What does this fold into?
Amino acid sequence: MSELNEKGNKLLKLLADGEFHSGEKIGELLGVSRTSVNNYIKGLQEIGVDIYRVPGRGYQSAAPIDLLNEKVIRALSGTPLIKVEQILDSTNQWLLDKIPNIRNGQACIAEYQLAGRGRRGRTWVSPFASHLYFSYYWRFDAGIEKLSGLSLLVGIATVNALEKIGIEGVSLKWPNDLYYQGKKLAGILIELNAQANEACHTVIGIGINVRMPPEQAKLIDQPWIDLTSLSSEKIDRNLLSATLISELQTLLPEYEKKGLKPYLSKWFTLDCFLDKPVNVLLAEKKIAGICRGIDDSGALLLEVDGQLESYIGGEVSLRLA
It folds into this structure.
């Protein structure tokens, strides 16, 4: 199902309440046969909507479906520069394709990504209406040379947003991941469009695990956690989106003026690998040392045989030893 047509949308809204609905009732609502109902159900399952079928009772979503609401996010964040789509290839790509015809602070959020991507070419598992797939545009007039610590600043902004909706204890892993007790909660992917000595167009992609469906969890090859398991309260993705936008609106202009230095102390309190034995992976090379945090530019500081070495992101990876 590359897009949700009118009938698919009607079916989603019907199943959103988490109650059972008979195939006959669904067929009448959509004006289709029982065979077609089956096909629509399969289409939703293919994009990650967890739907049960119980003979004699009908179809039920495994959990109530709360869809993103563009108007609500605009009202909560105080900005009109928000676009919510149901299905996209990638929220980052949606913004990249619109440069330079968009304004600072334009956000794009999707319910599902056909080609969500992470750092170093990895895919990002994107079940429908389950997580937050979020991208944000910002133009840096100072140019690309000022942006080496941007992913770290975005990590801090994301932790701030999570704390404001009641999620405590999240830590940061250099250069672009959010963790909770050793399990990945979120990732950041920043993509640039720039030339030397010119303004730098940046698209900030943030993926946050909100509610992981069991079937989608099987596709992930590393320890993970989601916000639902960290909170006794229901996670409102509209509120999370708006709070994240507000944090970025506040921190990005300050970062552009002052760089990462004002945020170093915050990073050191959140760094989950600080003062721990780690391995830095650089191409085919593995360097063992002790993580000593970051410098003013956002470079990783690694103590090797009593000497400090620094490493910038890109193709560098960090692992616990």
